[in-house]
Amino acid sequence: MNCHDIELLLDQYLGGELIEEQQRVVEEHITACASCRFKLTVLEDSRSLDEDSEVPASFTSAWQQHIKEEANPVKQGNRALRWLSMAAVLVLLMGGTYLTGQQRRSAHLVPRSTDQASYGAGAQPGIMPAMEESGDMMMSMREADQAPKEAEKAAEKIIRTVRMELSTRTFEEDQEAIRGLVARYGGRIEQSQLYTTSGNLRRLDLTLRVPSKELDSVTASLKGVGKLVYFTESAEDISERYTDTQNRLTTQQTKMERLQELLKKAESVEDLIAIEGSISDTQYELDRLTGLLRGMDSKVDYSTLNLTLNELSPIETSKDQDETLLERIKNGMSAAFTEFTYLMGDLVVFLTVALPYILVLIILIILIRLVIKRRKNK
Amino acid sequence: MARGKRADAQQFMDLVAPLERKVYFTCLHLMTNREDAEDCAQDALQKAYERFHTFRGDSQFSTWLYTLTTRVCMDALRKRREIYSLDLLREEGFEVSSDEAELYLQLEEKDRKAALREGIKQLPPDFRAALVLVDLQGLPYQEAAQALDVPEGTVKSRVNRARKALYKILLENRELFLGDARLNDERRERNELS
Question: What is the CATH number of the domain that holds B166?
Fold first, then answer.
């Protein structure tokens, strides 16, 4: 047997798998042959290479800990609980948003009922009376707020102008409602223009004058008539201008008195003519200033309300026949987008309204968790 | 369900306990450094636990575990993209000279093993894996082939070539390793003294 043959037997020799005869041959060869002894030594060393080494304890505890955590039923339960709570939060959000939307939708109807009956006495079912009550409360609070300010306002001259646009499917009904509303609050219609638009729909432009004190009540009620599309309010403080004009008026009045005295003392015809000319000039100025002041007073006492009422096509389906697919997609998308923005609005409103409850809930949950943890640690 | 899982975990840990050493040291020799080795061993045991339900009794648990471990390590090594010189394995005509062998055999076992550990690190991954599974872990060729996912013949040839390369490394760099081993000894002594 040469070295090559021996080498092939080394594995088995180490494994003790050789028959006695072969084993003896290998042993004899190894004692004599350094190269084969070297190879055997390397193999033996390889087998026992890690014998004296230890697995680091940190490694053992790490993987065991990991498996235990993975198998921990508490954690499994937690996972289910987590999904469940996530679902609950989702349901809460969706429900809250829907309810907020419901309130928004019904809020539109509330003032319409006031068209028929006196405020707050509307026989609306369900949550409506409560809502109206709160509306009333808010209204009276606002009035109470305004009362002390009224005194200051005597000196303050503010012109308030509101511009709003409403759209409706019940055009005639709402038109009547608006007229009734304006009359009830002691306002008047200054200008009224009725158009017919391309789609055979009507559009009403109204310029209303409403007592400034009632402006807020009127706009609040109007917001409930049809759907509010657009609303702006501006307030212009003309106090300074008003005082200036008043001062100029006083000056002119003094001048007038003096001129009249001069007239009495006049002796020559030239003087008379000159003074009378001045008097008529002054009178003209007096009239102009008084007119200005009156105009300002009127604008301050009666706010201008520019109102546009747009008629919407009564039923969506009647439109469908004329619409192309693209238009339908477009309309559908814009409708969806509008709904979406409303929905997001509702969500924000709901979250804001529910914020205190959410905070309390979070604190409660934290406390419960702390208690559970402490109990577990014991 | 949860209780079943817990029972599984206990069963798994009982099965792994005697093999933990093998998993750890296989990773250590394959990955050549402790950090990577621990990562891979962790990873392998974790994967094994995740797939424990797919383990059927038809193969030995140890073979199954070795297969997973080796795969994790080989994947990690592939990502490492180390370049190994294949010159070692190309030289077919290397023969162990008895003089050098004698000199090597005069070394203490501790020094020989230190040299061996260093020598294994120099082998290219595929060959190192075959050698580690067969010569270090004592796996039969057939099981090593299964773990490495190559035919048995390939494992045999890889082991043979890896051994040859290792002999060459050990003999030619004997003094180098010896120096290293001695240095390590000296360092250890100094640490113990201080």
Answer: 1.10.10.10
Q: How far is A35 from chain B (nearest CA, A)?
A: 5
| Closest chain B residue to the Cα of A67, Cα to Cα | B9
List the domain range (segments joined by +) for residue B108.
87-193
With a cut of 60, say whether residue A255 has pLDDT above it: yes
Q: What is the CA radius of gyration of chain B?
A: 19
Contact B46 A56 (CB under 8 A): no
Among A194-208, A232-246, A354-368, the least confident range: A194-208
Give the number of domains in chain B: 2
The pLDDT value recorded for residue A250 is 92
Alpha-carbon span B65 to A15, nearest angstrom: 23
- CB–CB of B177/B167 below 8 Å? no
Q: Do B69 and B140 reside in the same domain of the chain?
A: no
Q: What is the largest CA-CA distance in chain B?
A: 66
pLDDT tens-digit series, residues B96-152: 777 888 888 888 888 888 889 989 988 888 899 999 999 999 899 999 998 899 999
Angle formed at CA A376 by CA A370 and CA A378, multiple of 5 degrees: 105
ipTM of the complex in this document? 0.84
Sign for the CA dihedral angle at B69, B74, B80, B85 comes to positive
CB A110 within 8 A of CB A132: yes
User: In the predicted model, is pLDDT for residue A303 greater than 60?
Assistant: yes
* B141 lies in the same domain as B102: yes
Residue scoring higher pLDDT (A278 or B186): A278
Chain A residue numbers with beta carbons less than 8 Å from the beta carbon of B97 are 35
Last residue of a domain, one of B52, B80, B108: B80
Predicted TM-score of the model (pTM):
0.47
Chain A residues within 8 A of B107 when measuring between CB atoms: none
Regarding whether B19 and B70 lie in a shared domain, the answer is yes
* B157, B95: one domain: yes
- Tell me: do B105 and B135 sit in the same domain: yes
pLDDT per residue as tens digits for the range A150-190 = 444 456 888 888 888 888 888 888 888 888 888 888 888 88
Q: Which of B100-132 are b and which e, b meaning 16 or more Cβ less than 10 Å from the residue's Cβ? A: bbebbeebeeebbbbbbbbbbebbbbbbbbbbb
Sheet of A188-196, strands arranged across: A188-196, A202-211, A302-311, A158-168, A227-237
pLDDT digits 0-9 by tens, A116-127: 433 444 344 444
Q: Please give the Cα distance from A5 to A93 (Å, whole number).
A: 81
Identify residues of A whose CB sits under 8 angstroms from chain B CBs: 33-35, 37-39, 41-43, 45-47, 49-50, 53, 55-56, 59-60, 62-64, 66-68, 70-73, 76-77
| Residue where the block lists tokens 């814009």 | A334
Integer CA distances (angstroms), A152 to A146, A147, A156, A213, B66, in order = 10, 10, 6, 14, 91
Residue A63 to residues A67, A74, A351, B13, B69: CA-CA distances in angstroms? 6, 19, 44, 10, 14
Report whether A47 contacts A14 (CB < 8 A).
yes
